[in-house]
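Try it yourself: sequence plus adenosine monophosphate, in.
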Amino acid sequence: MSLLTVGTVAFDSIETPYGKAEKVIGGACTYISWAASYYTDDIRLTSIVGHDFPAEEIKTLEARGVNMEGLKIVKDGLTFFWAGRYHENMNQRDTLTTDLNVLDDFDPELPDSYKDSKYIMLGNLTPDIQIRVMEQLTDPQFVALDTMNFWMDIAMDRLKEAISKVDLLTINDEEARQLSGEYSLVNAAQKIFEMGPKYLVIKKGEHGALLMSKDEMFFAPALPLALVKDPTGAGDTFAGGLMGHIAQTGDTSFDNLKRAVIHGSAMASFCVEEFSLDKLKTLDKDQIAERIKRFTQMMSVDL
Ligand code: AMP
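Structure, out:
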């Protein structure tokens, strides 16, 4: 079924203990769409880039079946740019630069063919844009929203308004604390449920992800990897795998959300093995199935 993806399409400059990548392709929507493209063939991308964004990248996504009608190209603008540096432990990073560029005055107008989208992944970008997209949908079945501390710092009220309209919120543990004002993640989750969402996924980097509803909880580990080269985009790739699986199955029960979280974790485990989208672009169905199998083996126990 149809999956609408929204978020940044970007240039990133990344420094990790394993090397540097200057002005490579990134952006929440890019990672989400690549990951989801392994699950469903009706993906509708919504984003904005400047004249400096390579046409080649647009073509490769199109070749994977992603509908690019909703990608606005601004002839006299520059693409969103983000630069970050990871600490030795890779779980922490410092943002060095965030240049919003064309994102600054993006007012997304969904193509008519996108308006009936059923499954929606609102990736990280301004809450204003996330709200504008939701306002144009005619029959959304399940809306997920991802965000980050940057938007909590500069647009908390609008962000809370956006969050009040969605079914699922995905954020990391520190962001859950900032959003709720609670240190305990259990208390943070209760506060977040009061804001509107029915489900919450708290991402804990290399320590996995926690899926919660008001009365159920599920923990998915991250796959322990010998080498993590670049964690950039892991959260977005997770979201892409998760919503890709939900759109593919059309099932939003808690049991199926559990499976979706494992698909998200498996896709994220590929993402971090190389810089930028280098690994995500090379996958096939067998590799993904094999990795899902490793998750089920790692998680099962005969008590
Ligand atoms: P993640 O590692 O999952 O948080 O995602 C990193 C990606 O998000 C990078 O490719 C960036 O281009 C993009 N990004 C970084 N900061 C922001 C921001 N403030 N808003 C939207 N996207 C961002």
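One thing you can check immediately is this: Residues 3-299 form a domain with the UDP-N-acetylmuramoyl-L-alanine:D-glutamate ligase fold (CATH 3.40.1190.20).
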